[in-house]
Amino acid sequence: MAQDETGMRVGTSGWWVHVCATEHLTHYGANKSRGREGMDAIGIAPQFEGISVHDGLPSYQGYRFTEALCNVHHLRDLTFIEEELKQDWAKDMKSLLLEMKEAVSQACAQGQPELETAALAVLLTRYDQIVQAGYQINPLVMKPKKSGQYKRLPGRPRQSLARNLLDRFVQRK
Asked: 56 with 122, same domain?
């Protein structure tokens, strides 16, 4: 099942349209909440037990379904980072994700249940190298202490789209 959410206006208020789609069915539900409250009210996510493909919104975590992140969302974000922020690592990651998809498609067409270990290792090494290149130009946000030392901002630091995407690539590899 694919899941997504998008904003809409109801009168003067901001609401969210939650979409849950399979190959044959699509459900649209509107709710004031973008997050878990809205998903729970619509009722599909709490009951679903298959694979859910989504954009990585943290509200999807913790349900019974198996999560898979949507590479169309990744490609869109990477295109923005490449074209608007002029960061070359994003172009490299787009190419690699598409190469990975093609490698999996070829393995499936040949009846293989998974990629060969050596081929997978090469792809994952490149993945890690590209992520590290991205981190080099998108450092962690720091806040100076009074003493002149630096510490991490309390809670989750407000970061750039590029840094957040890199973090997702590492945490959800």
From this structure: no
